[in-house]
Amino acid sequence: MSAVNVTGLTVRFTTETGVTTALDHVELDIPSREFVVLIGPSGCGKSTLLNALAGLLSPTEGTITSAGEPVDGPDPRRGVVFQQDTTFPWMRVADNVGYGLRARGVPAAERNVVVEEYLEAVGLSDQRHAWPKELSGGMRKRVAIATAFAADPTLLLMDEPFGSLDFVTRTRLHDLLLALWQRTGKTIVFVTHDVDEALALADRIVVLSQGAVVDDIDVPFARPRTDELRRDSAAIDLRRHLLDRLGLADQRTDLPAA
Amino acid sequence: MNVSVTQHRLTGVAAIRPKPAGGRLATVRRLAIAIAVRAAGFALLVAIWAAASTQFLAVQLPRPELVLQALSDNLITAPSLSLQGLQGGYLSNVGYTVANTLVAGLVGGSVGFFVGAASARVQVVRNASSPVLLLFGTVPDLVLAPFLLIWIGPGRAAQFVIVAFFCFVILAISTQNAALRLPTRYEESAATLGAGPAHRFRTIVLPATIPAIIGAARIALGTAWGLQCAGELLGSERGVGRVVVLSQQLSFTAGTIAVILLLGAVAVAVDTALVLALRTLCRWSAGEGA
Hints:
The complex is a heterodimer.
Chain A: E1 2-15, E2 18-31, E3 35-39, H1 46-54, E4 61-66, E5 69-70, E6 78-81, H2 93-97, H3 99-103, H4 108-121, H5 137-150, E7 155-159, H6 167-184, E8 187-192, H7 195-201, E9 204-209, E10 212-218, H8 233-245
Parallel strand pairs in A: 3-8, 3-9, 6-7, 7-8
Antiparallel strand pairs in A: 1-2, 1-4, 4-5, 9-10
Chain B: E1 3-7, E2 14-18, H1 23-53, H2 64-74, H3 79-82, H4 90-121, H5 123-138, H6 144-152, H7 156-181, H8 184-192, H9 197-233, H10 240-249, H11 253-281
Antiparallel strand pairs in B: 1-2
């Protein structure tokens, strides 16, 4: 069964300047356990599609089903890691990580086991009693990832979660995310505008442009993907192809030296 | 050495960072200096008062020691004022004023909080409450007093309504503003984690708005003491306002100042309690120490 099926999805917004079509008859099918990256330039509809998948946005036309059930609102089976910092500042780290479990009435003893497991997985066991204000941006993002995984969704939606982080922190979080994904077998839909991030993470890359799917590419490279991938001719070709799709064909596409 | 575990912003690698030397000692020293400065300020005020009182009659501006004497003589019972019909001494009358103010403030403030929070999230409630909040946020609450005197008389109920309504308006406006400023992403995130509306209200909206609520409560109470006394001045059997009226009739200015200072001391204590509550409940906030 598909983790997500999108049929004829159209989303229009009414603004002061008129009606804007953010998504235009999008068709998408995502099998379970797949790591799908949605890529596209700013304003192409990536985040709108993700919000619709999360149930935070109602389609103007079309249908979305997740695990065979229609998406008609937020549901803990579809977790979200937002682009902005959403760790709750008034809760300590451990309370943030256990929030979803507590909201669903999971007993404290059971909850604490899961919280400790994910705090350890993201390397924040020593910060369990810290306030978010005491953490760096990268650490808060790790709290958000632990919070999302601890709630045990079947589908995890991630909206440019690492966009504001520096290269080193982002690379570390890629490794962490892939490790958690492989351990838990969740389906992940990850939004980015970064071609290299897409190549590092994806099983499949879906390219969006002006509210429509313009390309859907399987990424054949074995994992773990190391810096050697930067010298792989197939990877270089795919990178050029993606840049071309993003309207950057005229830009310099040589890869930086590894 | 006093240390804290931190993490390097770029590498994410845990590291040990020493805290500034003598952290606790420095805190105690800062506190002691703050208390000393406040005491010095108070002493300066009393000194100016004592110096000024030498230029006036006792009925115009009594000396500080006369005020202390009045406080001591009338604290439990007020013999001279009892002849005018006053029950009890300064303490019980201040207690009456304090109890009325706090109960009315709590009731009005609580209703204001819920209306403010609801109006921030439900358009119908916002549309319905906005005219009232806008009107009474700008018009002084005391304009209600003449109407209340006509409708329900000058007793405790009228005082309660004046204070409660004022606190309602302040808390409703402050809570509404705080809830509107709260980024929707927090509630959206909570919803995707399985939190229903009631759970979101309790775990997101309420804690996020607590700093604004306590700040508004301090502002509201700061004025509520005066409103309660004003209500009592309009006609009351008990309370600080009643003591002030009777003392004025007897030209007992020292008594008037004494009872006002006693109420002021209680108001400062309540405000200090709110500040401590803010520091305890809002350790998470960037403005409060963890």
